[in-house]
Amino acid sequence: MIDRIYRTAVLSVAGNKTVEELVRTRGWSIAQRFVAGDELADAVRAVEELEREGVYGILDLLGEMVTSEEEANTFAEKILAILDALEGKPYPKYVSIKLSQIGQDLPSPQGENLGMVNARRILARARQIGAFVRLDMEDHPRTDQTLAEFRTLVGEFGAQTVGTVLQSYLYRTEGDLASLADLAPNLRIVKGAYLEPESVAMTNKVDVDAAYRRLVYAHLKAGHPTAIATHDEHIIDDVKRFVLAHGIARSQFEFQMLYGIRRDLQRQLAREGYTVRAYIPYGRDWYAYFSRRIAERPANVMFVLRGMLKG
């Protein structure tokens, strides 16, 4: 409950326009701890720096919940540009997108939402160059639609090209995991970073962590590709023991973490022979993402305040 109170307070303050303007004006130098830069070239450099440390990258152009066809198509073109930039690179090509970013809420002349039209364009290009695309999960009202569209896209492009995300703090998620089993999907398991009502999401960290372990273990035991997205060393150690006890190959799973957070742990796991990826966001629309990172840990607030006082 304390975790929820803290998150609610931070995200409520972050929603204040005066606070947003202050952070946008003075906080970019601090946000760069979590965001690779404004431009695609900045993000590609970040991927290549991590590659030298044995850690792979996941590129994510920041932005969500667009309201115009022009904006959605612009985002889609920029994501296609990521794939163009990755073509021919000697390392794994991995991109994360939000369907709301490319027109999920907008109609299209083809008779379905613009997000699906643009997703097909992106996935066709990804398949052409051997890239993988992760459909990020957003706030809970979008879960049903996102999972339905994920199912359609897996049917068209295959689980080797497209995956999605499940959030352990939602009460519904174990049912969602079971409903996707026939796809043998590539799933990223996260705890959840949106401020959700208590009617749909757990508020106690212990409960969220327990649900997280159940989801990861169930997906691993089913033999499906699993991205374990956490910085929690207790969970990481438990996963190591679990896969060893059940004879699960390291090629079936990987650890995923956020850019700029626990880089030491990322390098350590890579040295131990585990696949590790860092989620590398970039772009000018960084404020919402930055706010969610601050809401995750009280220490992050102190980091921001110290940096702004210096500025």
Description:
This protein has 311 residues and is an alpha/beta fold. The protein has helices at residues 2-14, 17-26, 28-31, 40-51, 69-86, 114-129, 143-157, 173-179, 205-221, 233-245, 263-271, 287-296, 298-310, and strands at 56-61, 94-97, 132-135, 162-167, 187-190, 226-229, 253-258, 276-282. An eight-stranded parallel β-barrel has the order 1-2-3-4-5-6-7-8, surrounded by seven helices. Helix 5 runs parallel beside helix 6. The chain is globular, with a radius of gyration of 19 Å. Its EC number is 1.5.5.2. It catalyses: L-proline + a quinone = (S)-1-pyrroline-5-carboxylate + a quinol + H(+). It comes from Deinococcus peraridilitoris (strain DSM 19664 / LMG 22246 / CIP 109416 / KR-200).
Overview features:
311 residues; alpha/beta; TIM Barrel; 2 domains; eight-stranded parallel β-barrel; globular; disordered C terminus
Explain briefly what this protein structure is.
Keywords: FAD, Flavoprotein, Nucleotide-binding, Oxidoreductase, Proline metabolism. The chain is of the alpha/beta class.
Low-confidence stretches: 9-14, 301-311
In this structure, how is the largest beta sheet organized?
8 strands, parallel, barrel
What distance separates the N and C termini? 34 Å
Q: What is the name of the CATH topology of the largest domain?
A: TIM Barrel
Strand order of the largest sheet: 1-2-3-4-5-6-7-8
Number of domains: 2
CA gyration radius, whole angstroms: 19 Å
Gross CATH architecture of the largest domain: Alpha-Beta Barrel
